[in-house]
Every structure is written in C-alpha cells, then in structure tokens.
Amino acid sequence: MFQYGGLRPDNVLEYFSQSPFWDSSSNNAVLKMQTQFNDLQHSFYDLKNMVGIEFSVTHQEPPSLFIITKFRRTSPTRAVPLAVYYIADGNAYEAPTLYSIISTRMLSSIKRVEEAFDVARKHAEFHPSVGYTWKETADQKRARQEALKDIQ
Predict the structure, then answer these.
(1) Nearest one of 46, 95, 42 to 67, comparing CA atoms
(2) Residue 127: which pLDDT band, with cuts at 50, 70 and 90?
(3) Which member of 23, 84, 116, 132 lies 3.0 to 4.6 Å from 95 by CB, making a disulfide possible if both were Cys?
C-alpha cells in the first residue's frame, strides 16, 4: 500500500483485511467477493442491509491514523460495536476494552493497598486486655515520650 501512495480512506479497509484481526466471513469480505468482477465494487450501501459482522472506518486522520470498528449488524438501523482497532503509522493494533483498562488499574491499586496492609500488620500487636497497639523500637518509644513532654 505504501508504494501506491500510502494509506487513504479509500484503501484502508483493504489494507486492514491483510491483518490478523480481519474476519474473512464478515459482510465486507462477502460483499467484496460478490462484487469483485463488476462495477459495484465501490458500492457500500448494500453493507447496511446485510446482517452479520461488519468493519467500518469510524475515524480518520490520514495518512497516519485510522480507527476501524467491528460491528454486529442486526438490522439496517442497529449495529452493536464489538471491538475497535486502529492503524497508526501503517501498523494495525487492537484497542483495549474499557473493562480491561479499568480492571488492570483496579488490580494494581488493590495490590498496593494489600502491600500497605501487610506492612501495617507487621507493626501491630494484639493483647486481649489492651487491644491493638503498634510495636515500637526503643528509639521510637523514646522519641514519642519526648514529643509528649514537649507538648505538655
């Protein structure tokens, strides 16, 4: 594609069809096979009337960025997005889902909280008559007592 003028809105889906993300049973592929030897090659209005998987360029900033969305079309007016892909500087990538981003962030946050509790647990003591208290080294105890004297 690059030797023929680079990626453009009219050839980006053809380029994307060579990626591992392409579904060869999609409506785009079926329509391409059905119209490859006639004059309807650039007629995509039939795609809206088909039911099944469909790829569509949903955003573009030629020549460096194209966003392609994979839809499941159930009627001419209803298409549910399934996945989002982007082509940046000629390379195709699958965009992460919102769920995967949030779950990864939450997992890393929970990991940090768990580590903090582990540190706190090492410094806590429990006695039935007193309850929980913090373990103190002799230096920490002396510093605390001096601080209390300064306050009084």
Answers:
(1) 95
(2) confident
(3) 84
